[in-house]
Amino acid sequence: MNVINISKQKIFDNKKHIFAYEIVFRDSENQTTGLSCSVKGTSKLIISSIGSTELDKLLGQRTLAFINVDAETLTKGILDVLDNKRFILNILEDIDLTDNVIAKIIQYKKRGFSFSLEHFDSSAQMITKFSRLFNFIDIIKMDIVLSEASNLEKVQAKFKGTRIKLLAQNIETKEDFLKYSQMGFDYLQGYYLDKPEMMEIIGTKEPAQVIILQLIKIIKDNDTTEQLESFIKKQPDLSFKLVQFFNNSKKFDVQVESLTQVITLMGREKLLRWLMVYLYSEASQNPASKTILALAIKRAERMEAEAEPKQKDKAYLAGMFSMLSSIFETDIKELMNHINMDNDITSLVLDKKGIFASSLMRAEAAEKDYLKEIMLANFEKLHTTDLIYTLEYGGVDIDDNKL
Fold it and tell me: Please, which domain of life does this record's source organism belong to (predicted)?
């Protein structure tokens, strides 16, 4: 079961009504884990959990949530999948404000995201550091423990009544609550008001390959771009990979502003082909998946070239689908049942029948001829056990008496 631990702490307005939660991700040892860890592949569930219905159950569907963001989170495209009406992006106090980071903050602000500053200590150094950002900040979380009283009062007076809201952080006692409420702080947070509560988020239970196959079905059914975007957004890790691919593509030298933009610029056929590559290379744990992917692309291109003009896209997809059973341990029939694919493609994948069958047979024959050449040329390098495994997996019986 995919589980991640999150601590939540309530944030109140000055009338002691719940305004939002601050959520902090924890690893198995209860250490704070940043969102950017998902970039390194160590915490994919973190980003997945943000789109989870479990989160709605635990926080409420309308309650805002603060999440901490660092430079890597801001610049790697992770945040593109978030609901800008639900999450407040909490900028960590030790962030390195490079030009790239500032540009990203401005970009996300234009897209409707709200920003807060974490552990603002009210010092001259802190004010200088974040001075370029104040036009884009919505909430300053002023740390009453770290701030000197005189500095805190000056900063509070400077921003009071402006567009920027002020939050008193680390309210530990009743006296703290009364004092900072009377000072006119908009929001308050601390152990006196609410202690962080640990909770578990259950990640998606569907295997990655099923999700991608369902997405391929949506594209083939010509659903609207809005429906397509909505489905992709529910799979944050896939969304991140798509945006990453788009950003790395030399053809598209633009800043990503939305998944709709990515889908529109890529076009559905290019998106389909990318998904098939993703299916082979990312959703499979098979160690030979890269080699099989290369073979599948060659097969798909061969079948596409042989097909009638109106059938070329379908022929390409059929060729790619025809090798899925080679890389997944899951029964291919079970996978195909999830998507109810086009009959011509389904017949080819499950029974090697239909309008593309002869093309597939020619492709397989060409592949076998090539692989036979490779095997014979390298026969002396092959281990006996590798050959036995290959034959056994292929259903070829070996006569023990002749060994």
Answer: Bacteria
| Tokens read off for 157 | 């007076």
Q: Which of 10-24, 26-40, 227-241, 376-390 has the lowest mean pLDDT?
A: 26-40
Q: What is the 3-state secondary structure (H, E, C) of 361-391?
A: HHHHHHHHHHHHHHHHHCHHHCCHHHHHHHH
- How many distinct structural domains can be found in the chain? 2
Q: Per this entry, what is the length of the chain?
A: 403
51, 198: one domain: yes
Q: How confident is residue 216, by pLDDT bands cut at 50, 70 and 90?
A: confident
Q: Within this chain, do residues 129 and 258 fall inside the same structural domain, yes or no?
A: no
Residue 80 lies in a domain: yes
**Which three-class secondary structure state does DSSP give residue 194?**
coil
Shared-domain flag, residues 134 and 233: no
Is the CB of residue 23 less than 8 Å from the CB of residue 8?
yes
Assess whether pLDDT exceeds 80 at residue 48: no
Instruction: Identify whether the C-beta of residue 315 lies closer than 8 Å to the C-beta of residue 271.
Output: no
Query: Are residues 246 and 276 located together in one domain of the fold?
Result: yes
Long-range contacts of 216-221 (CB under 8 A, 24+ apart): 216/272, 216/275, 216/276, 216/317, 216/339, 216/341, 217/339, 217/340, 217/341, 219/268, 219/271, 219/272, 219/275, 220/272, 220/317, 220/341, 220/342
Answer whether residue 342 is part of any domain.
yes
Quick one: DSSP state of residue 17? -
102-127 pLDDT, tens digit each? 999 998 898 889 999 999 999 999 99
* pTM for this entry: 0.57
Contact 6, 23 (CB under 8 A): yes
Query: For 122-163, how does the pLDDT look when each residue is reduced to its tens digit (9 = 90+)?
Result: 999 999 999 999 999 999 999 999 999 999 999 999 998 899
- CA angle, residues 297, 366, 392, in degrees to nearest 5: 90
Rounded CA gap, 10 and 112, in Å?
23
Q: What is the average pLDDT score of the chain?
A: 81
Residue 166's pLDDT is 96
Written in H, E and C, the secondary structure of 47-59 is: HHHHCCHHHHHHH
Q: Are residues 221 and 348 in the same domain?
A: yes
Question: Which structural domain, as residue segments, surrounds residue 324?
Answer: 208-362
Statement to judge: residues 118 and 228 lie in one domain: no
> What CATH number corresponds to the domain at position 132?
3.20.20.450
